[in-house]
Amino acid sequence: MLERNTNFFPQQLQKLISDSFLYVNEDAYGNDRLFFENAGGSLRLKSAVDAQTQLSSLPDCPERTHDIAMDIRKVIEKGTEDIRLILNAKDGSIATSLTASKLMFEIITTIAMDKSSGNIVTTDIEHPSSYDACQFSAEQYKHELRVAKADPKSGSIPLENILKLIDEETVLVSVILTSNITGAMHDIKGYADAIRLKNPDTIIVVDAVQGAPHGPIDVDEWEIDALNIAPYKMFGNRGVGYAYLSNRIASLPHHRLLATDEDNWNIGSPTPAQFASFSKVIDYICEIGSYFNSSDDRRTLITEGMNRIHLQEQAILNRLINGSNERPGIKDISNVTVHFEEANGIRQDLILALTFDNISCEEAVQLYGEQNILVYARESSSHYSKRILDAVNLDAIVRVSPIHCHTSTDVDKFLEITQKISEIIR
Ligand SMILES: Cc1ncc(COP(=O)(O)O)c(C=O)c1O
After folding, report:
1. What superkingdom does the record give (predicted)?
2. Dihedral angle, C-alpha 16, 19, 25, 30, nearest 10 °
3. CA of 306 to the centre of ligand 1 (A)
4. Which atom of ligand 1 is nearest the CA belonging to 210?
């Protein structure tokens, strides 16, 4: 198995990164806080928030022809181009909606509606936005719903479990890039190649909401048909989701203002502030890229930046698990179990799924909170978690989700508190 990167960002770059985010070391009330809950919505870039505010202050309608209106149009065009660049979407359409979930429902329903009585393949660790969309569409349009089983050890879906459900009647396959609960990452290119080999007509839909902030995305190379992301999970703001749709699905009959192009998925007035804000996210990723790469090609810098983010996060993960000369890592702290990570190796995202022998997950979250560390318990009492936790034979986990802007000092603080929590006797 490949070794994880252990080198953190150079100090100069680390400082630039830390200074780019809001509330890295304290919360909105000025209290010290380590925000290790980025899978629930990530730390925000100052530039993304500022751009949102600035564009939101303009009353001008972009559909007019005066100077400000024309400039706002450019912001929307640049934002759309930036969405294409981060996804490497060279063809097809870009869709926007209030949430990534809404887009997933639109996409899956549209595909399911186009074919009569076949089957839809999904997995038992999908987020409800895609799983429920598959179930809903299967019921509405008389398809059979087939659910690929997870490997409880890795919290991922083995490719063969998907392939054995695919036949000539398979309308679509929906598979998550990275699980927001287990942190398992799927090799979408490898999966898509194998799915196409089994049935080239099957539409491949990918939920990249959790994966997008942690590594490069390439819909062109992966040759998939649809993929969604959410800026609030990748250093930007809430209130919008984006999706790519390939040429073969973009013009399927779908909700559309009928005077617009057949492949247009945007209904009503766009929000320029969202595009301005997302372009700042892309600028930031390019800034990291340009620290290591002198290219002036924006996609090259995005890929470099996302690869560097991924490497930094692998170094954070490594220190969390294995510790350092300063302190032992989680694997050497008794009473704590790290799930999935060992089975996944370098295919584990920067998400730790922990359970404690001495206390419940709920108690652990409370205790971390008292020590100014924000983490979250995913429990089977929640619709968002139950099916996924059942699939990996767990009842609850403490989800720990830092991002690349965190440092070795932050990791050591987390380990120190984890050690203390693990020693509590009830
Ligand atoms: C993997 C994954 N997919 C989809 C979503 C849906 O995002 P939203 O609720 O913003 O639509 C989430 C949100 O947590 C997610 O983690």
Report:
1. Bacteria
2. 170
3. 20
4. 1
